[in-house]
Task: inverse folding
């Protein structure tokens, strides 16, 4: 659940940052029933791409790629 909240926060932050350059920006709504995996960015010290693989409420496996700031905890 903690990872899911981090992902949603990252998506919202990315959308807000993108909105500074474009007049109309919307935050995507994801239909997430179960999170399968999220890219480990604990050793990244910069903005890096991350991917979340999840199953939606219809049982379809989907993935979303987004930008996230690493936290350098592995350094």
Result:
């Amino acid at each position: 659940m903690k990872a899911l909240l981090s992902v949603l926060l990252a998506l919202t932050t990315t959308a807000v940052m993108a909105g500074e350059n474009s007049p109309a920006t919307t935050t995507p709504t994801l239909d997430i029933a179960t999170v399968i995996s999220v890219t480990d960015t604990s050793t990244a010290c910069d903005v890096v791409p991350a991917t979340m693989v999840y199953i939606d409420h219809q049982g379809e496996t989907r993935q979303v790629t987004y930008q996230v700031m690493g936290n350098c905890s592995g350094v």
